[in-house]
Specification:
- The protein is built from five helices and no strands.
- By secondary structure, the chain is an all-alpha fold.
Length: 174
């Protein structure tokens, strides 16, 4: 998609360049009249390039978000289907590590905001970080549970992660 847009914009620039070269061959009046067309075309081309960059940035941000969501889901799947305490702990540690990276991205996004929007975003990130830290502490409950008791602790930790995910999704939309 981006390549096609860049190729198209490249062709537009070449066509404008050709018009400009041709205009130079005309009379002074013709050059003057054509120069207005060419200046407008150059402005429009730059506007189109700016739009393409903005859309590309938005697509890139959405893809980054999707990659993060996929990685969280993969770790969650591993945690959900863990049959041993060690498997669960490993999967959950990986998921919590991904949450740390995700929250860092949200913090950077919040820092780019201004005024009340920034305050709301930073408050949301603070709340999410506190929840994430709490989940990390509760992971130790899983490690200390005797016998099959880790499965009950697992259910509690997974429920907390579900709540974290719900809150994070809401914060990301805002």
């Amino acid at each position: 998609m981006a390549t096609t847009t860049n190729e198209h914009l490249g062709e537009v620039r070449r066509r404008i360049d050709r018009l400009e070269v041709k205009a130079q061959l005309g009379t002074a009046d013709a050059k003057s009249r054509m120069q207005r067309y060419i200046e407008n075309l150059r402005r429009d081309e730059e506007s189109a390039r700016a739009s393409a960059r903005e859309r590309a940035a938005a697509v890139e941000e959405r893809l980054e978000q999707l990659d993060n969501e996929l990685e969280l889901a993969e770790h969650r799947m591993a945690a959900e289907f863990a049959e041993t305490q060690d498997e669960f702990n490993d999967a959950l540690e990986a998921e919590l590590h991904r949450w740390d990276a995700y929250l860092d991205r949200m913090q950077k996004k919040a820092a780019a905001e201004t005024g009340a929007a920034r305050e709301r975003a930073e408050a949301a990130v603070t709340d999410l970080r506190q929840r994430r830290v709490s989940i990390g502490k509760n992971l130790s409950d899983v490690g200390t549970a005797a016998g099959d008791g880790w499965r009950g602790a697992k259910a509690r930790v997974l429920a907390e992660l579900d709540e974290l995910k719900t809150k994070a999704d809401a914060a990301w939309r805002d």
